Amino acid sequence: MFLTISTTGTTEKPATDLGFLLHKHPGKTQAFATSYGTAHVFYPQATDHRCTAALLLEVDPVALVRRSRGKGRNGSPDTALAQYVNDRPYAASSLLAVALSGVFRTALKGQCAARPELPRQARPLRIEIPVLPARGGADLVRRLFAPLGWDCVETGSVTLDEQFPEWGDSRYLRLVLEGELRLEDALRQLYVLLPVLDDSKHYWIAPDEVDKLLRAGDGWLAGHPEHALITARYLARRKGLTQSAMERLELARLAEADGSEAEELDNAVDGTPADRDSADRDSTDRDSAERERSVPLAVPRREAVLAALREAGAARVLDLGCGEGQLVQELLKDSAFTEIVGVDVSVRALTTASRRLRLERMGERQSSRVRLLQGSLVYTDKRLAGYDAAVLSEVVEHLDLPRLPALEYAVFGSARPRTVLVTTPNVEYNVRWETLPAGRVRHRDHRFEWTRGEFRAWADGVAARHGYAVAYRPVGDEDPEAGPPTQMAVFTRTADSPETDISETDTAGTGTDTAIPKEGEAA
């Protein structure tokens, strides 16, 4: 099994800098023990103008068979069937990928203590693999590597036997990649794509493979047009692992589009909430015994939402910002709601919702009524169009005010359900919370909390811009002076194609369904 990495340079920037990047001296031949044999690193040429590093992996077929026994369907099928006679010692595969990560570990991390500036620099690279198994052929090879910045992706057939040309070509290819990339990026791509092209792994696929994939794919996998195929093949088509990886990739994509960190978006599940008004769990943080015995505000809020949905005659309902799935769970209890879709940007929230709903154990008839989708509410999403009603319950206050126009257009301008319900805290009522310090919002993630007048001004403007009528309803016990603890706006669509003055916020966003795309499908 063989791979070469070449680069060019000048006297001022010598090509032998490759030795610093790989942490392997060009003047030495080195050997490294692996679980399946020995990896050799040497330099066929090393001058200022051109330098080539070679990785030769000698596979011990006996060790390979012994370590592959008992792996079941996740072991290498070639090894399981052919035992000692197979292509593993000769064709690039996950064996070579593992050797890359072991021998060039520091280069894969983009580290170079002696020359810390080198890993950040793109350089002309030429990578050659003389024997590459590619289940999908040359077309798949180009589809995988061409979007990654390579100027040239060249493949050539490998004949079965040069002495017998009538036997034709084998299923193997010769691969040459040329382009100006950082060495770290090139190695991480090879680490992922070699086993993907072989469509087989020689070791057991454990849950930590998801972390390995996302680490190696950081910065390029989420935006790759074939990310669904790559993910499914890399994880040996194990549905649970593939679904987890796809959700985390979508979160990374949304975070990149949002200009924020993934952790900032995936914050819907909070183990120590300070909110006293926006979830079932908030009632546990009250001081007095009287409040501990009282009904949590989340209960009348859900009752008010359900009543408004029934009154509107809604059958197909979106729960936008569904969080842990409390409202979705209530909707499922009423057969009048024939289709229920929960949407949230947080992977953790959707996982919790799935467990709460017991989707894995749910009967076919019931499960056909519900879906959980990952997506950001500030991007338009074609999957959300055509529904009877949408609910934004305790959602808007978690967005920065400058983001509200984007949410407004995504829901009212693009999805355009017949009815939209919006609930949000009434900040005037906060003085009635004895345990809430003056000037504090109800939850530490709230970006703002509106007075009744501010909420009505916003809702009236939304309705006028998008062709809706709006009515207001109190939620919870209404105080004569402070009003209700929660305020709700009920929007009813009155026009099909209204004029809008914020169309520039129509940013295309696709999101990812929790269902796993089939190989070859677009996610």
What can you tell me about this protein's structure?
A hairpin with a 2-residue loop joins β2 and β3 (37-46). 32% of the residues lie in helices and 21% in strands. The chain contains 18 helices and 15 strands. By secondary structure, it is α+β, with helices and mostly antiparallel strands. The longest helix is centred in the middle third of the chain and has 20 residues, at 239-258. The strands form two sheets. It has an eight-stranded mixed sheet with strand order 13-14-12-11-8-9-10-15, sandwiched between helices. Strands 2-3-4-1-5-7-6 form a seven-stranded antiparallel sheet. It has helices at residues 17-22, 61-68, 77-82, 94-103, 105-108, 137-145, 183-198, 208-216, 227-234, 239-258, 262-265, 289-293, 298-312, 326-332, 347-357, 364-367, 404-415, 452-466; strands at 2-8, 30-34, 37-46, 50-59, 123-133, 152-159, 169-181, 316-320, 339-344, 370-374, 389-393, 419-425, 468-475, 486-493, 512-513. Residues 70-79, 269-293 and 499-523 have low confidence and may be disordered.
